[in-house]
Each structure stands twice: as structure tokens, then as C-alpha cells.
Amino acid sequence: MSTNEGYSKSNIFIFDIDDTLVITNAKIIVTDIDSGETLSLSPEDFNSYQSNDKHVLNFDEFKSLEILKAGKLIEKYLKVLEVNYKKGNAIGVITARDEQDLIFTWLKEHVGFHVDKKLIFAVNDPIHGFNGNIAAKKKQAFTEFINMGYVNLTFFDDDKENIKIIKKVAKENPDLKIKAVRAKH
Q: Where are the alpha helices (DSSP H) in 41-181?
């Protein structure tokens, strides 16, 4: 598909990647500094992971375009993306991943949607300058869409904490139409 140059500047549909648009085999490797023991966490497991100063986290598998391309697409939410893309609504991404270019390439070359790179927030990518935990960074990214002038925002994410935060943003911005949808697969 070609670039959606004339997309809406007021309506945007925002998607998380992992466990919302795709299920991959990528794991977060957690290593205990003291014992050297490791464990692997799926993105779903990581949503409830309690951070520990004695743990080192390795997200390298999430930097692999091949692992992302080998993932199982979640058709239900991909269809929502496609319908709104074709309608000319803006499409955005807010993901915990740390590489904006990887998401842009995956969406364009593998999934078939040329999403404007400025609407892709890989919240752990240092280029964005977000800080705090994942939910706090996702809130900062969501606020960026509001600052861009979007007034009708729909957000899809599998993590209930991220949904709670966006619902809080909606209450703080009653003049905007904000909807948060918990993605279930």
C-alpha cells in the first residue's frame, strides 16, 4: 500500500504491537545477578513482572525483525487498523519496544501499511526521551498525540494497566473523545 498522506489530523486509532497486533515468540530474559539463574518472560508475563534491583533484563529478541515477522498476526485488531487506514483515519503505534524503525519497517514491508513514522512511538527508544515505567512512558506517548491536535483518539492495548492510564487521561481531558479498548486474543 502507498503512504496514507492525507490521513485525518483529528481522528487517530492507536495500537500496541505485542499481544495486540501480533503474538511472537520473543521473550524477555531475566538474569538474577547473585545466582546467575535466568528465566524467560513473554510480553504477557512481563506485564505482571515485579522489578528487582538484582535482575538484569535483556530485550534483544524484541530487536529481531525476523522474530516479529514470524509472529502470528491478530486478525481482529489488524482488521480495525485496515478499515480505519482505508477510511483515512490516522494510525498510530505505542509499543514498549525500543526501536521505532523496526516497527515502521514491519508495518510497511510485512503487514502492508505505511504508517507515518512520527506516529510510531516505541517508548523505550531513546529518541523519544520518555521516562518512568512502561505505563508512564505510554501515557507520555499518548499525550504526544493529544499535543499533535488529535481530538478523537482510540487506543488498543492488551495490558490492563495501560488501559487504566489512558482512561485517566480521558478523565483529565473531557473535551476530547478518548476510548481505550483492552485487546483480547
A: 43-47, 65-69, 75-87, 100-105, 134-147, 160-172
Q: What mean pLDDT is predicted for residues 149-176?
A: 96
**Amino acid letter at 131?**
N
The structure's pTM equals: 0.91
Return the exposure string of 104-141: e unless at least 16 CB atoms fall within 10 Å of the residue's CB, then b: bebbeeebebbbeeebbbbbbbeebebeeebbebbbbb
Alpha carbons 82 and 80: distance in angstroms, whole number: 6
Classify each residue of 4-27 as buried b or exposed e, where b means 16 or more C-beta atoms within 10 Å of its C-beta.
beebbeebbbbbbbbbbbbbbebb
Instruction: Identify the pLDDT of residue 162.
Output: 93
What amino acid is encoded at 180 in this protein?
A
pLDDT score of 98 more than 60: yes
DSSP reduced 3-state for 18:
strand
User: What pLDDT score was predicted for residue 2?
Assistant: 39
Are the C-beta atoms of 55 and 32 separated by less than 8 Å?
Answer: yes
